[in-house]
Amino acid sequence: MTLAFSNVAATTCDLQMMWEHSGFTIHMTTDIDAKVMARIDSAMNTDKKPYYEALIYYYNNNKDMDKALAWATELEKDKNFPPFVPKLWKARILLKKGDKAAAIATAQEGVKMATDMKADEYVRLNNELIAQAKK
Question: Alpha-carbon distance 74 to 89, whole Å?
Answer without folding.
Answer: 12
